[in-house]
């Protein structure tokens, strides 16, 4: 998983990154492709090959999700993947001004 732009500060992944590093090779799945969003002041952010099945909580304003991965993405209005979810099929976009606070990839 690679993060681009100031996305490292935008996504709270410390625990997730540790878990991926400790997992045996091939054990952790990834959503091949990229997931993009608009952050503070309209700055674009994206993450490449996000982890499958793990909740990624955003640490700052996030809106306009674009799922360009091979797996469905589910965005949530609250942190820690809580609240009424919105599912984005591969290639789907949420409205540009639609806010979200966390995201999870895959069918789980």
Main sheet attributes: strand count, strand direction, barrel closure? 5 strands, antiparallel
Approximate shape = globular
How many DSSP H or I helices? Answer: 2
Beginning-to-end CA distance, first to last residue: 19 Å
Please, what is the average pLDDT? 81
Secondary-structure-derived class: mainly beta
User: What topology, given as strand order, has the largest sheet?
Assistant: 2-5-9-7-8
Q: Which residues sit in consecutive blocks of at least 5 with pLDDT less than 50?
A: 1-27
Share of helical residues = 10-25%
Report the radius of gyration as a whole number of Å.
Answer: 13 Å
Write down how many β-strands occur, each being a DSSP E stretch of 2 or more residues: 9
User: Which sequence of SSEs, written as H and E, runs from N to C?
Assistant: EHEHEEEEEEE
Share of residues in strands: 25-35%
């Amino acid at each position: 998983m690679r993060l681009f732009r100031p996305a490292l500060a935008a996504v709270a992944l410390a625990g997730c990154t540790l878990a991926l590093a400790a997992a045996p090779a091939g054990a952790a799945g990834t959503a091949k492709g990229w997931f993009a969003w608009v952050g503070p002041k309209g700055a674009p952010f994206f993450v490449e090959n996000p982890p499958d099945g793990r909740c990624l909580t955003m640490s700052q304003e996030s809106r306009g999700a674009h799922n360009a991965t091979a797996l469905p993405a589910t965005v949530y209005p609250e942190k820690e993947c809580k609240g009424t979810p919105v599912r984005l099929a591969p290639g789907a976009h949420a409205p540009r001004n639609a806010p979200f606070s966390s995201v999870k990839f895959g069918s789980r």
